[in-house]
Amino acid sequence: MTEPTPDRIETIDLLAQQWQAVTALVADLDEDGWRTPTALPGWTVFDVVAHMIGTESWLLGEKPPPRDTADNEIDVRELPHVRNETAVMNEIWVDRLRPLTGARLLEMFGAITDRRLAMLGKMGDAVWKTPTPSPVGQVGYGRFMRVRLFDCWMHELDIADALGRTVDEGGPRGEEAFAEFAESLPRVVVKRGKAPDGSRIALDLTGPLARTLSIEVDGRAAYADTFDDPTVSVRLDSRLLVRLGGGRTTADEHSGDITITGDEEVGLRVVRNLAFTL
């Protein structure tokens, strides 16, 4: 069965809103603020925005700027958090943009995202549905753009957390980004959390994206509409779930914020092994 492709107009509009939200979040930063460390290994707020510029530039067919020969060359493959070629390219973009000021980087971010929106606006439905490689496999280009929305939404949260600021994690952007995030949870619960066959896991979420996610393991994990007798129920804030899934924190650091009812061993194993995007 071919999965439906997200609506083109709606997704482009949400991407535009997402990039505007990032711009507003960093617009008042001085240089010290730009260089604030984030939860991402080795990356500051500046680096997170540089990474987003790099990805959108790549989608426009552009290459990283040349290295300044006056700077010491860094072999990004030796960085401990770089594990694949995508991460290598990410680090090259970030490294090449680091000599810029925050103000100049923000100008670039605005220019690149404007060009991306123009490109997407000219895209017809046929191209939008065309299968293309993405971080989640070969999917329609529109699904890839929902992945981009999720990625940029996560990075908005990274920046806000680093700066000690609060942003709206619900609403249409949050709902659509979370829908992409939630696609991976059943697989993660089984492969990383080792949920046993026959188990039923209820993730009871509070907070801005409150809902219950019911995952049933029957040979493979999949969402169920509901079930009356879960093997384990895990109650936590949606904001915490997203950060656990993103590898930005650990369940043990938030043990007081997670309530497990039922099979505690399974519940603990699941929440301690949710990270899949870092």
Automatic annotation (TrEMBL):
Mycothiol-dependent maleylpyruvate isomerase metal-binding domain sequence ranges: 15-160
UniProt keyword terms in alphabetical order: Isomerase
Domain MDMPI C-terminal: 177-266
GO molecular function: isomerase activity
Chloroplast keyword on record: no
Domain of life: Bacteria
Name of the protein this chain belongs to: Maleylpyruvate isomerase family mycothiol-dependent enzyme
Record lineage: Bacteria, Bacillati, Actinomycetota, Actinomycetes, Mycobacteriales
